Amino acid sequence: MGVYIQAAAQISVQNPLCDDWLDNPIQYQVPYQRAIEADYKLFLDPVASRRMGRILKRAIATSMTVVESSGITNPEAIIVGTGLGCLETTEKFLLALVQEGEEFLQPTNFINSTHNTIASHIAVHLKCNAYNSTYVHLGVSFESALLDAFMQFQLGRIHSALVGGHDEMIPNYFYILDKVGYWEGKLASECAVSFMLSDEPGDNPMALIREVVLLHNADEKRMESAINQVCERLGTERKEWVSPPSVKPVFGESFTSQAFEMYAAAVKMQRGLIADNILLINQYKGTETSLIFLSKC
Questions:
Q1: pLDDT tens across 17-69, in order?
Q2: Where residue 107 falls among pLDDT bands split at 50, 70, 90?
Q3: Contact at 8 Å (CB) between 127 and 148?
Q4: Most exposed: 36, 180, 228, 251, by fewest CB within 10 Å?
Q5: pLDDT tens digits, residue range 185-217?
Q6: What is the secondary structure of 205-219 as a DSSP string?
């Protein structure tokens, strides 16, 4: 069985919560760029918003957008992938610890510094008491969350799921990673992408997720073998699956940038701007490989 993408939303270095990047992408000539913030007054109470870090506000804004677009107000699972979690809040807590000692620390920064804070805040905001999980696996964090959701659908445990990839990049951590050559000349950016998934096609699905595969320490031969096995299960041929150019030049690089790849493929597929069968391949640092098979509905 497949899983339908009912809605998707992004906050990134492009204009937020829209698809302007398709026709008028914003070009950057800098090594590091933070995301363009949305108007959070549309989603959050100003008092509550002041207590939240940027990554939490972005996650709630993108989540509320896909909830409204899909009409699924109470998803049966909320699953988030994040490579670094609430990095900015963590930095605030640690700096206060160093500068002020342990006696006068604000508990809010500590509470909001844990990785599962993102999924938890989304659940509280949506009043959703269902399955809630967070995956932290560096460059395949989003795919790990997506695979969990896909398996939950296959087992018949859920019929809808809110899946997201969220990461932020603070200046200090950018410079640390830059010193060790992590960025490799690419634009370092931030990621906030949410998807509403369902086992029913609904009125206007964006795309169909046919399969999700994660591989560890896979060389090209093993990867191609895994692709061929999936093609055999799906009753298709390898040549039918096309891997499009990456959208990282548009959205930048982050630990969950593969969420942008799936988002962009789904948007283009819905508009008929891309092939009917798309294979998204992520080979992270030569150790982790993810395969996402998307088809037109």
A1: 999 999 999 999 999 999 999 999 999 998 888 889 999 999 999 999 999 99
A2: confident
A3: no
A4: 180
A5: 999 999 999 999 999 999 999 999 999 999 999
A6: --EEEEEEEEEES--
Distance between CA atoms of 227 and 54, rounded to whole angstroms? 38
User: What pTM was computed for the model?
Assistant: 0.96
What is the rounded CA–CA span in Å between residue 49 and residue 44? 6
CA dihedral defined by 48, 53, 56, 57, rounded to 10 degrees?
60
In total, the chain counts a number of residues equal to 297
What domains can you pick out in the chain, each with its CATH number? 3-198 (3.40.47.10), 207-295 (3.40.47.10)
Instruction: Tell me what pLDDT residue 101 has.
Output: 79
Paired with 293 in beta bridges are: 211, 279
Alpha-carbon 152 to chain mean position:
18
DSSP string spanning the chain? --EEEEEEEEESSSPTTS-GGGTSPPP--SSB-PPPP--GGGTS-HHHHHTS-HHHHHHHHHHHHHHHHH---S-SEEEEE-SS-SHHHHHHHHHHHHHH-SSS--HHHHHTTSTTHHHHHHHHHHT--SEEEEE--GGGHHHHHHHHHHHHHHTTS-SEEEEEEEE---HHHHHHHHHTT-STTPPB--EEEEEEEESS--SS--EEEEEEEEEES--HHHHHHHHHHHHHHHT--GGG-B-PPPSHHHH-B-TTTHHHHHHHHHHHHHTT-S-SEEEEEEEETTTEEEEEEEE--
CB 112, CB 52: distance < 8 Å: yes
Radius of gyration of the chain (CA): 19
